[in-house]
């Protein structure tokens, strides 16, 4: 009996001890769980950029010389003829600061009269940094985030944090603060500093969102280099400014104030440093950005382009303009406040050939893919030669090769708009007596050897028209034009439209076209009855009577554009 009682007491002691240990273990687990439960996450969401103010950049002069007019008004253009290429500068409309090709939202007017944008989204993959401080001012954490990827930072429930956000609005790494006790960052020179700050109380349950809207802390000057008028992508260029026009300093993240502005050496930029114009991917619209803390005007900002190389669309061989340069001088008016942007656009244009009374395109006009909806659709062929593509045969004054006559001048649609137009009959007449040769072997063509202009890297200096034939309308099938290209005249005749807007074609009077036949000079060409001519020449200017003929039946011919003399042009040696 005693032995049994002793065993029972021992068992009771063992069970009690086990219960105490279990209770202690449970208490420890509850404590750790409680500590972990006091921590949560703050989820950062960069809503966008606000305070976008757009202003205009006025062109003052080019090639280091003042233009004839002190300033160009908005929308006006000035053209320059350099030896190897032309350039046209247009007074730009409002420039939207760092919209990155994304939708604009919450557009309102500001008191400065500019256009103010609120919460414009940042581009994907832009990097930014968030720095958190506890309520007592001690540093808590610093994390780099990427737009499009979630950023979560551990924080304590119920606490209030002061936060600072900053970015340079690009995909490069954002350096951490050099001193957490003094949160200041450099403003940058070719990078766009955007910052924001605030406080956020962490919720008692669930994650806490932090929506951040940043503001620009510098002004921006943008210089767009556009090669759409050369029907090429930009392969290489060097962009040099004629002075150190801009300033940089530091920005206090606590207040957003900038200070310590000092002039910096403006970097020389190459094509590798030039991003695509926001919203474009075609490589023919590049932009150089410069940032400054100064609001003052820069009345003589000189921009020089050298080492230009372009690659014509659809080819692999670049055109290198070695030794050529083009210099432009702009008047940057004063900024109303930090956060403004001004943009200059330089449109580079393929060099023409001069003959008679006009400056001629080197090759025929075509509509890329026979559609006006694509990128830069109105183009000149990169190389001249025999062409049978439907995209290069146009109705008289027709905007579409597959469309009707009389709808407009297709040459004026070539980028930049109105830089070119269809030749007048008088301009064609002016070249007929000039020196030329007729090539009757292979792909027949006529060369006007008296034309002047630069050769390399272009194919040559001769103005050449190939015997591509022409097209007739056979009728309408299901409402669609049924066009027959007269291949019996392929390689025997060149047909190119002239533009005579004075003549009322709709009334049935007629118009003109340039005609080259396969007959040598001195022999009267054997022409179709509709193309009778009494001129004795390898090339003549013919009248086509449209009396009683629908404009749908006017026929389809090639178009060779000339530079529009209505655009003032300054020749730069």
Automatic annotation (TrEMBL):
Protein name in the entry: Major fimbrial subunit protein N-terminal domain-containing protein
Domain of life: Bacteria
Source organism per UniProt: Sphingobacterium griseoflavum
Signal sequence residues: 1-24
Keyword terms of this UniProt record: Signal
